[in-house]
Write a structure and sequence with these properties.
Keywords: Aminotransferase, Pyridoxal phosphate, Transferase. It comes from Paraconexibacter antarcticus. Its cofactor is pyridoxal 5'-phosphate. GO terms for molecular function: transaminase activity. This is Aminotransferase class III-fold pyridoxal phosphate-dependent enzyme. The chain is of the alpha/beta class. It has 2 domains: 178 residues, Aspartate Aminotransferase, domain 1, CATH 3.90.1150.10; 255 residues, Aspartate Aminotransferase, domain 2. The protein is built from 17 helices and 14 strands. The chain has a 7-stranded mixed beta sheet, with helices on both faces. Helix 10 links the parallel strand 7 and strand 8. The chain is globular. The structure holds 4'-deoxy-4'-aminopyridoxal-5'-phosphate. 4'-deoxy-4'-aminopyridoxal-5'-phosphate binds next to helix 6.
């Protein structure tokens, strides 16, 4: 399969050779890199993308889950064009910034909002707000979870399994070089789906005079495929944070907009103090947002915490976001995504059962995946211990060679878009069945 993909992507290879002369590693972001070379895209329309070799693919990658609206949606295009004609940037607020905040307030039930330009900025500012409010430094995150590329959260992500050992006593680990050890040490990771472990760790931190400012987490983990919260887990975390006066941040950069109108907050009915959004929020433009309670956002309103940025609330991004939220991501759109996701999950589950594959299909809203693990993954440790990485790699190559564009990682999930149809998801299942046939032949 690797050879076949190489043969199909010779144009990407030629592009890579040119790109490599001017772009570090030939890519704009390290997450776009891939061995032996990246796939360079040229165009997207609705549920499909085309690479520079002219390969037409159903897009299940969707820009790491940013394009839940589908590519080149006419309503978003019209909003961008209209805005362009009357100026794209002032660094002064516009009407759309108010309209979007009102819609986010309605969806999340959180009263006060601010904008940023990416998920990383959203989590960076949210953590600063929590620290500013509480006057504390320590941050609690989930073992193995990703919240962007700023120093505080580039901690205890991709840990090798043999490094994990006794996770309750594992030191915080830097994710890549260039992060000050003092910053790494301020971030403490605890396992997902284990409120007891979080409680023990928080009590220990309090005893050490290091009471956390916040817990930052995804309500459903979206970087181990999809890992859903076990019953009662989110409420237990909520109660724990309330009891100790710790700010609870739901990082909904991936789940927000994509899994329900009001994201994971709506889906599981547990309300955080702060929520972070990005990716799909901007309908293809770089827009992020932070929403919070009156109490938490008061430190922004009184000016004690600086929440700033030249491009925050950029009119072009706000116009695209307004059109996306009000015209594209309607109740009908969410119903469509739920129906399609049920269909693809049921299709994959049927294949798994028919061919006796060691794995399961899991998903929510527009997101899902087949997890190649004989047992259920509930967090980073069970993922690392049980995921068949070779199978995940093979499935990716197999998909790519059959016109299914997916994220080139073992940790990602599919994101359906409103432009996807039963034809798209049925093709996915058909290719998955072909893989099953070959594996069991
Ligand atoms: N939080 C989560 C949950 C994410 O998945 C990501 C990106 N994968 C980020 C934050 C960072 O977002 P960005 O890449 O836009 O900075």
């Amino acid at each position: 399969e690797a050879k076949a993909l190489d043969a199909r992507t010779q144009g990407s290879l030629a592009t890579y050779r040119r790109a490599n002369q001017v772009l570090a590693g030939g890519v704009a972001s390290s997450y776009q890199a891939r061995d032996p070379w990246p796939i360079y895209l040229e165009r997207g329309a609705g549920p499909k993308v085309w690479d520079v070799d002219g390969n037409e693919m159903w897009d299940f990658h969707n820009g790491f889950g940013s394009m839940v609206q589908g590519h080149a949606h006419p309503a978003i295009g019209a909003a961008i064009n209209a805005r362009y004609a009357s100026g794209t940037h002032f660094a002064a607020p516009t009407e759309d910034a108010i309209t979007v905040a009102a819609e986010l307030q309605r969806r999340w039930g959180l009263p006060k909002w601010r904008y940023v330009n990416s998920g990383s900025e959203a989590t960076m500012d949210a953590i600063r707000i929590a620290r500013g409010l509480t006057g504390r430094d320590t941050v609690v995150k989930i073992f193995g979870s990703y919240h962007g590329h700023h120093d505080t959260v580039m901690v205890s992500i991709g840990i090798e399994y043999d490094q994990i050992g006794d996770h309750e006593n594992l030191a915080s680990l830097s994710y890549g070089a260039g992060i000050p050890q003092a910053t790494v040490d301020m971030t403490i990771a605890v396992p997902f789906n284990d409120a007891g472990a979080m409680e023990r760790r928080i009590e220990r931190l309090i005893a050490e005079d290091r009471k956390p400012a916040c817990v930052i987490m995804e309500a459903a983990m979206m970087n181990l495929g999809v890992v859903l919260p076990e019953d009662g887990y989110l409420q237990a975390v909520r109660d724990l944070c309330t009891r100790h006066g710790i700010v609870l941040i739901f990082d909904e950069v991936k789940t927000g907009i994509c899994i329900a109108a009001g994201g994971a907050t709506e889906k599981w009915g547990v309300k955080p103090d702060l929520v972070t959004l990005a990716k799909a929020l901007g309908g293809g433009l770089p827009v992020g947002a932070i929403g919070g309670t009156e109490e938490v956002m008061s430190v922004v309103e009184d000016g004690s915490v600086y929440q700033v940025g030249t491009y925050n609330g950029n009119p072009l991004g706000m116009a695209a976001t307004r059109a996306s939220l009000l015209e594209v991501m309607t109740p009908d759109a969410y119903a469509h995504l739920d129906r399609l996701n049920e269909r693809i999950l049921a299709g994959c589950t049927a294949v798994i059962e028919r061919y006796g594959l060691p794995g399961y299909a899991v998903g929510v809203g527009s997101k899902g995946c087949v997890t190649f693990s004989p047992t259920k993954v509930i967090g980073y440790e069970t993922f690392k211990a049980n995921q068949d990485a070779a199978m995940a790699d093979l499935a990716w190559l197999f998909n790519m060679n059959r016109g299914i564009f997916m994220t080139p990682g073992r940790e990602e999930e599919w994101t359906l878009s409103v432009a996807h149809t039963t034809e798209a998801v049925d093709r996915y299942v058909e290719v998955f069945e072909e893989l099953a046939v070959e594996l069991t032949a």
